[in-house]
Protein 1
Amino acid sequence: MRKIDTKEIADKVYSLALKAGISLTPDCKAALKSAADAETSGAAKFALNTLILNSQTAEAEGLPVCQDTGMAVVLLEIGQEVFLTGELLEDAVNGAVRRAYADGYFRKSVCDPITRQNTGDNTPAVIHTHICAGEQVKITFLPKGFGSENMSATYMLKPSQGVEGIIDAIVQTVKNAGSRPCPPVYVGVGIGGTFDTCAFLAKKALTREVGAHSQRAEIAEIEKTALERINALGIGCQGFHGDTTAIGVSCEWAPTHIAGLPVAVNIQCHCVRYGKAVI
């Protein structure tokens, strides 16, 4: 049994939030550079290079890489042999988010869904916890902007629609979104489980390295085929009709009921920004 004070978790969340707010992930930077180098449309190439310059400037100056600094999503994988001490975990995480968004001068975007009154500090965060083996705590911090989140969708497909139905749902979601989620997008997909499970899996898929395919062959084939069809749409960077509409498609899956085929498609804009740490 290992004791971990929730303050230690909070400190990690704080540092991850500050970095994620100003920095794209290395794999995202590489994907954007590769897309810019290969782009054949002049307008789309210009837009891609502008996005790259923006990310470089943000990191160098310590400024938010996007004006939408996102709703804080925190994934915690907690080892079963861990005994948490100190402040309530949820309070500790929210306190860390509150401090990070104040110290980083990040926009506070969280509000009541009915009155639209802003909470003023970007809390509460969306916190997902999973109990796993071991005596470590794995932390993932994902600031999720809503220009792309609003373009996401969940489908309750018929089992008979199969793989083609899954791919069609992914591609159609991106097509419907058009230029609104600030492409080139990163597409997270959840397949299986229940209505709520597949949505979480889609979010989790966005924390995978861009370009890294599933270890399951059938899922990897869905990722590759969907990406090809998305880029064939020709929407391009920022809607300028280019070669790259998406830099990647990542799918997570879970067993489902014999009567259903839930599929969730979570769109992430070109600002792929998250951080991970292990305590």
Note: The chain is about 40% helix and 25% strand.
Protein 2
Amino acid sequence: MSVKILSVDDEVDLELLLTQHFRRKIRSGEYEFFFAHNGLEALQEILKHPDVSIILSDINMPEMDGLTLLARINEMRNPALKCIMVSAYGDMDNIRQAMNGGAFDFATKPIDLDDLDKTIEKAIEQINFVRSSQAEHSQLVDIQNDLNVAREIQQAILPHCFKLKGSYGDNVDIHASMMAAKDVGGDMYDFFPIDDTHFGFTMADVSGKGVPAAIFMAVSRTMIKANGVRGIKSYECMSQVNDLLCEESLNSMFVTTFYGVFDLETGDIEYTNAGHNPPYILRADGSVEMLKSHTNIVLGVMEGMVFQGDTLKLEPGDTLVTYTDGVTEAENSSHGQFGESGLEDTLKTLKGATAQQIVETVNAKVKEFAGGADQSDDITQLVIRRVK
């Protein structure tokens, strides 16, 4: 692609000099010259040829001089358009004004064409750099737009209506939130009906962050739900999902998962913890205890693993608080962590609180603790309170 150069000078002899000196590059298609005799004609040529890259302009011209032309070109805000100003050797005040006004370089009359050749080559290097930067910026903008769409999709697939349908829906109070550390995250919460009296729920954290983690999260969520709605035991669900994820896992990705099946009639929960942070139970009397469970491997690492489940019972007023390590490992500016103690202390102040109040209070306490420190991990909670 040829470099288009616009020469602006009221001395017509310059056209012959330029075309003669650069004849080989013109003939090979490397350079293409256009000519104008004052600033007004130059602006018209730019309109006709908007891909002009270099303007070689005299300063002293009739109708519109070179300094005024330079000002008009600056208004175009095109960093890939370079101006080389030309004037008499003794006209240094105007040349200085041109350089202060944004000219790329200057040449003095009579023009040393060999020196001008080097100046043009230097301008081309700058133009190529600017265009490369503009292309990279455009790519980054496209990527950011894609990430924005991905974030919207990810948020859309997570439940936002926390009301269970059916005659037993009022037996529980549910709320959740997920705050990604990047544009998209690798954390997940979910809950779904299994039958009239049972629903499944999940809290999970995929290794890594960003787009790969988000995709692996979406796959994991789909597999857990697809197996969970069949009404099988939680440990059977984890075993089957683990084998499926091992077949699909790339770059040694895995997902820590807490999956449970809640009985809406009795408050009984049958659950399996696959390498995830142990949830807390906030009892109706305000006491807080960490939920104990068998130790199981994370999902997606090794096929054929046997998972062991556990059970617990929530009495009316009891609350199960599940979360990801983005809560307990949130750091402040001194690299101190919110920790399990921070979460426990917060929960102890929330006797009788609704699920939404618990989620919002924990998020607020984590944010207060972190201060102005950057969020280093996704922060996700799913809280289930037995009402009756």
Note: The mean pLDDT is 90.
